[in-house]
Amino acid sequence: MTKNELVALAFEALEDSYCVYSNFPVGACVLCKDGKTFKGVNIENASYGLTNCAERSAVFAAYSNGYRREDIEALAIVSNGKRISAPCGACRQVLNELLGKDTPIYLSNGKEEVTKTMRELLPMSFDEEDVL
Ligand code: THU
User: What is the pLDDT of residue 104?
Assistant: First the structure.
């Protein structure tokens, strides 16, 4: 699957976002090395802090189906924002552990696109290496 196809799946996911409070839909899609894909959306809650971001939803879906860091080829995260939406701090900590440090992360707002890795997004991280 190409980068553009994965980004298109993330935009497809975005349609299912549950963002009744922010009205800011975000979509994500994990591509696994065997070709399987897992979509995710942001899912908000009246207790705002319990919101689950799209990228965490997608990666949790992959893990829930038995896939692990080494099985994941790429992740796309998309919004319709006026600029690219980069993962929030909480998501960076989670993605840093659940993705490979050099796994490509495609970010798009439909106008611009950039590819990042967790190594770039969360340098000098506290991670599994510290505690396992
Ligand atoms: N959000 C995501 O799902 N992913 C991001 O990378 C940035 C923010 C969501 C959380 C909330 O539902 C909405 O966007 C506005 O903050």
Answer: 98
